[in-house]
């Protein structure tokens, strides 16, 4: 009986092995990195704009469903709200949410003013940030605009309430200051913690498929976008082990942002908080 079972298992194992060898491997036929950005129906329906503030080197992102016209904006800057309103009007969009990846220390969020100008818009921030907003979110929450859903991932370390927003169907993620292109947010602010940031990036961002496009909160070097695979291979800070990373982060010696003392308290009120 035992002999028969062993023979049977051997046949099953050989069959499985042959099946695996014969079946064409998708990644050898079409390498993932040259496939189009979005293989789902959403690519035609997504309106996506990356907008830049050349004073604070901040990126703002506008995402909308072209069919329903529902939109969200990520990390608007108060000084550039007129620009954002013009684009929203040009495309006839209905702004649902003004999302903040965190309480910023270098510029004032535009989410409070946008909310005043557009009655359908609600300001959003992490509950962990303890800042005021209409909607408080946390890890695993979903924010919808039209047919699209953004997954909220908690990525603390630069600040306690840092969030990354993931648009799974389109393989896009908006990392705020948790992950910058070939860098990451500094961890020397009062709420900063290098070990927490290291774990956030490895567990919540590097766990995404390698072909996900990552859009950061800032770039100081003229770059616009990266991928999970690229950052895993080329981010000199985050390729280190935890102690190497902590050593680098504790010795960055960056000057404090010029507007630090002014912006933090204003951003705790969501720019201009008005229920
Ligand atoms: N020079 C700028 C501030 C630059 C800075 O500190 N950037 C932050 C994100 S905005 S709080 C950061 O985390 N940088 C990390 C890095 O490695 O550069 C100013 O004066 O405003």
UniProtKB/TrEMBL annotation:
GO cellular-component term (any): mitochondrion
Keyword Mitochondrion: yes
Enzyme Commission numbers on file: 1.13.11.18
Broad class of where this protein is predominantly found: mitochondrion
Domain Metallo-beta-lactamase: 57-218
Cofactors, names only: Fe(2+)
Catalytic activity from the UniProt record: S-sulfanylglutathione + O2 + H2O = sulfite + glutathione + 2 H(+)
CDD domains per record: POD-like_MBL-fold
Keywords: Acetylation, Dioxygenase, Iron, Metal-binding, Mitochondrion, Oxidoreductase, Transit peptide
Coiled coil: none
GO biological process: glutathione metabolic process; hydrogen sulfide metabolic process
Cellular compartments annotated: Mitochondrion
GO molecular function annotation: metal ion binding; sulfur dioxygenase activity
PANTHER family reported in the protein's UniProt record: PERSULFIDE DIOXYGENASE ETHE1 (PTHR43084), PERSULFIDE DIOXYGENASE ETHE1, MITOCHONDRIAL (PTHR43084:SF1)
Subunit text: Homodimer. Monomer. Interacts with TST. May interact with RELA.
Family: Belongs to the metallo-beta-lactamase superfamily. Glyoxalase II family.
Protein name: Persulfide dioxygenase ETHE1, mitochondrial
């Amino acid at each position: 009986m035992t002999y028969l079972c062993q023979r049977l298992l051997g046949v099953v194992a050989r069959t499985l092995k042959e099946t695996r060898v014969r079946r064409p491997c998708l990644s050898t036929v079409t390498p993932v990195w040259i496939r189009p950005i979005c293989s789902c129906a959403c690519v035609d329906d997504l309106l996506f704009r990356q907008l830049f503030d050349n004073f604070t080197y901040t990126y703002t992102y506008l995402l909308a469903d072209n069919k329903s016209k529902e939109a969200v904006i990520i990390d608007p800057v108060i000084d550039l709200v007129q620009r954002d309103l013009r684009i929203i009007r040009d495309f006839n969009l209905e702004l649902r949410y003004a999302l903040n990846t965190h309480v910023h220390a270098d510029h004032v969020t535009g989410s409070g003013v946008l909310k005043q100008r557009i009655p359908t818009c609600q300001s959003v921030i992490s509950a962990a940030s303890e800042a005021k907003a209409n909607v408080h979110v946390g890890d695993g929450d979903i924010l919808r605009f039209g047919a699209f859903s953004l997954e909220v991932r908690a990525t603390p370390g630069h600040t306690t309430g840092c969030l990354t927003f993931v648009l799974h169907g389109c393989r896009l993620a908006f990392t705020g200051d948790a992950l910058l292109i070939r860098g990451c947010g500094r961890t020397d602010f009062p709420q900063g913690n290098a070990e927490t940031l290291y774990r956030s990036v490895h567990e919540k961002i590097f766990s995404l498929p390698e072909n996900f496009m990552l859009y950061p909160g800032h770039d100081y070097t003229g770059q616009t976008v990266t991928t999970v695979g690229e950052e895993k291979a080329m981010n000199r800070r985050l390729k280190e082990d935890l102690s190497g990373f902590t050593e680098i982060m504790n010795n960055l010696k960056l000057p404090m942002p010029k507007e630090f003392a002014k912006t933090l308290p204003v951003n705790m009120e969501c720019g201009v908080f008005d229920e």
